[in-house]
Amino acid sequence: MDEPTAALSAEEAEKLFDIVRLLRDAGTTIVFVSHFLEQVLSLADTVTVLRNGIVVRTSPAREETPESLVTAMLGRAMTLAFPPKIQPAPDAPVVFQVEDLARVGLVENVSLNIRAGEIVGLAGLVGSGRSEVARAIFGADRCDQGVIKINGRHVHIESPVDAIRAGIVLLPESRKLQGLIMRLEVGHNVTLPHLGTLSRATLIRGRQENRETRDLLADLDVRPPEPRVKLTSLSGGNQQKVLFAKWLFRRPRILIADEPTCGVDVGAKQAIYGLLNSLAEQGMGVLLISSEIEEVLGLAHRVYAMCQGRVVAELAGLSLTEDAVMHAIFATPQVN
């Protein structure tokens, strides 16, 4: 079973585990592959760790911890910590605004803003409207009303082409279904939205395309940093870095990252955390959507909490706590 819980809620995953345990008790041998280390340790009897295609060790699950598995996987000790937050300047301008965005039955009068150099989180349960907001901003789905502003100026977005031209890009929650074309080479995936900047008349400048792509892949530590390899030959973490490369090939103003660490291992997670932090430090505005509350709290400077298609709270500073976010997304009053 290869990443069987990647797209499941916690409740759905528990139901799957019950079935797996029934199969095990009936005599079925199960190989369970997952980057969710807690799930591995709660389900497996024996754990085998691989690094760079080589078996590092095999041991009883009861003798391992998430920290020991991370160390074995990476070949060095690494805490599951987030990079330090670098606060945007107090006078940093608002570079992105959404006012009264709505899609009937899905999103109701959502307003938010992002300052230069700021990571803003959008937290909520599955079905709360987070991804619908992202897709509406990007023009992937029609919105019934709403105003979008870049640097204070109204931009008209009816399609992803309009959004890209305005400097807004979307890293979708599924790289395989929405973000990348799996049958193409790495380089073609990276440059596909940018061919207009690489062509003269109807001819693509192949040498420039190859050179710029290789440099970017190396900067993002994609392994191997080779544009000509098939995307399917890369690990999930490296495929996700290619998705980042696709939108960083021509630097956007606003990056919307919807579940940016979904389906990647802890090493790739750390790299993505560092990348998002670095992009914000360089002045980019980042809208971060994640089902992992720890990820939102660890990266975001401010958080908008969503419930049933509406923004129900804006949290920052001392009010930005796990307890406050959880109460908001479940729409329950917080007891002081």
The residue ranges in which pLDDT falls below 50 over 5 or more consecutive positions are: none
SS strand fraction: 15-25%
Tell me the span between the first and last alpha carbons. 44 Å
CATH homologous superfamily title of the largest domain: P-loop containing nucleotide triphosphate hydrolases
Helicity, as a percent range: 25-40%
Would you give the CATH topology of the largest domain?
Rossmann fold
Q: How would you write the strand order of the largest sheet? A: 8-11-12-5-13-14
Shape: globular
Radius of gyration: 21 Å
Largest sheet: 6 strands, mixed
Mean pLDDT: 91
Could you explain the architecture of this structure?
This protein has a six-stranded mixed β-sheet with strand order 8-11-12-5-13-14, with helices on both faces. Strands 4-3-6-7 form a four-stranded antiparallel β-sheet, covered by helices on one side. The protein contains 13 helices and 14 strands. The model has no long low-confidence stretch (mean pLDDT 91). 36% of the residues lie in helices and 23% in strands. The protein is an alpha/beta fold. It has two domains: 10-74, no CATH class; 94-329, Rossmann fold (3-Layer(aba) Sandwich).
